[in-house]
Amino acid sequence: MPGPSSAAFIFELLCRGGVRRLHEMQVHGLSRFGPVWRARFGPVLTVHVAEPSLVAQVLRQEGPEPRRALSCPWKQHRELRGAPGGLLTLEGEAWRGSRRLLARALLRPGAAEAFAAPVAAAVAELVARLRRLRRRHPRGLVRDIGTEFNRFGLEAISWVLFSSRLGCLGDPGGSRDRGDTEAVLQSVGAVLALTLVTMALPRPLLRLVPAPWDAFCHAWDQLFAFAKGHVDRRVAEVAARGPLAEGDTCVTDLLAREHVPVSSIYGNVTELLLAGVDTVASTLAWSLYELARNPGAQAALHRQLVAATATNGITSGDSATTDCATAAATAAALGRLPLLRAVVKETLRLYPVIPANARVVPECDIHVGDYLVPRQTLITLCHYATSRDSRFFPAPDAFRPERWLRHGDTTGDTAGDTAGDTPGDTPGDPPGPRHPFASLPFGLGPRSCVGRRLAELQLHMALAQILLRFEVRPEPGGGRVRPMTRTLLAPGAPISLRFLER
β-strand 44-49 against 378-381: which pairing, if any? Predict the structure, then answer.
């Protein structure tokens, strides 16, 4: 199997900043070695797969309990601290049980809409904060929107997980901008920034230079302490109040009703907390960044949103106390808007939050193309490379939401929703081969993203309310922002945009 030498790969990672450019290295690997190649990442030999049909081949052989990795620093932290694992780190039957319960709470049709009211409240607070921030600048500029969207992500996911209102989106500069919530956001960033570093560096080197590992463990400790405090508060509150009112529920409640041990609740909600902040924030930032650079697409989406507000029962979203039924109806209506869905899909194609997925097939050797890959081999599925492949997406680096629409599409539902959302044939999108596994931003199969519906709900509601109120334009004189890998794919520089009142 082709691939770079160990020395060349380590040099690229550690001396040329490759750890921050793993997504680009996928593209380079595909062009240099073909769709399958091997490389040694730290102490682990990895087989990279960057062809949609071969990605499908791997996923169809992964079995009912696929593993993400042979070893990872997240699991090592749990073992070192004696901390409970969650959906992202558990394996085997323990993982299967957590997955079943959380999928029932978050993935079944209509499940996400149960959280629409608190998400709508967080969106209203986000819009009010953006309005205050833009008024501070003579040209309506809001600097580093990713930081603001991280606050929104934490506010929304905290309500979903343990019905806590944190006040992350209060008056800029106020006292509530500091304290626990800022520490949590810093911890999320530290975990994501240090995961690949602690994975790539050999154990002996980490013992000689322990600072990255110590900082990584401290960040996880902070997240566990934060989540534990809020879980304990919620469990005690529910026990004191008795039966909950309709619509007053959260993931902690759902797990407690299933008699899940409280330690398992801690593990699951802590990992969901980490997963629920940066993922939504970066996608929201990239979406507005691309819409600002493509005013025609933004204008078309604004027209669709205005029309839907007039005819489809979508509320204005001005109130932070929208009732549950109204919020759920709005969320469902937004999910049926074809161009809104297409904008999110195209953003996730260009900037997949998880640029690569790891798989270990533990039980047997598997075929990947012309190769037989031994069991227990780490396989990296290169989603960034496949989603930027010109064979499947003409002009792959261009932002073209229309490539996801069908002629006469009025629902936004495409046949590809079950396996990668296959693009439709649209004007300006030349006919070509399509593959449903070319863009898999939420993964597929048993290890797919359990929070997909919730993430889409937050993205749809936030984009709709922001674009109904503001025209978004690029920062004057601002340069092109490129992505970087920090476990997830994130903007490589702060994104600043102008928000002009409509």
Answer: parallel
- % of residues, the chain, pLDDT over 90: 67
Those residues whose C-beta lies under 8 Å from the C-beta of residue 56, and which sit 6 or more positions away, are 435, 436, 437
For the beta carbon of residue 75, count every other beta carbon within 10 angstroms: 17
* pLDDT tens digit sequence for 418-462: 444 444 433 344 434 478 999 999 998 888 999 999 999 999 999
Q: DSSP character for 381?
A: E
CA distance 286 to 290: 6
**Distance of alpha carbon 435 from alpha carbon 485, whole angstroms:** 25
Distance CA 380, CA 290 (A): 28
What are residue 377's phi and psi, to 5 degrees? Answer: -90, 135
Q: Beta-carbon neighbour count of residue 153 at 10 Å?
A: 28
Q: What integer pLDDT is reported at residue 412 of this predicted model? A: 40
pLDDT at 173 (0 to 100): 54
pLDDT one-digit tens code per residue, 269-291:
999 999 999 999 999 999 999 99
DSSP assignment of 400-466 equals: -GGGGPPTT--S---GGGGTT-PPPP-TTS------TTS--TT--STTS-TTHHHHHHHHHHHHHHH
Report residue 162 as tokens.
């343990």
Nearest to 274, CA basis, from 266, 264, 263: 266
Q: What is the pTM of this model?
A: 0.91
Give the span between the Cα atoms of 302 and 309, in whole angstroms.
Answer: 10
Share of the chain above pLDDT 70, in %: 89
Rounded Cα gap, residues 207 and 480, in angstroms: 39
Of residues 272 and 44, more confidently modeled: 272
Report phi then psi at 171, rounded to 5: -60, 125
Question: Cα separation of 209 and 211, whole Å?
Answer: 6
Q: How far apart are CA 483 and CA 491, in angstroms?
A: 5
Q: How far apart are CA 100 and CA 83, in angstroms?
A: 21
pLDDT at 423: 45
Residue linked to tokens 């533990």 = 362
> Between residues 300 and 332, which one has the greater pLDDT?
300
What does DSSP assign to residue 382? -
> Each residue of 268-296: b (16+ CB within 10 Å) or e?
bbbbbbbbbbbbbbbbbbbbbbbbbbbee
User: What is the per-residue pLDDT for 18?
Assistant: 80
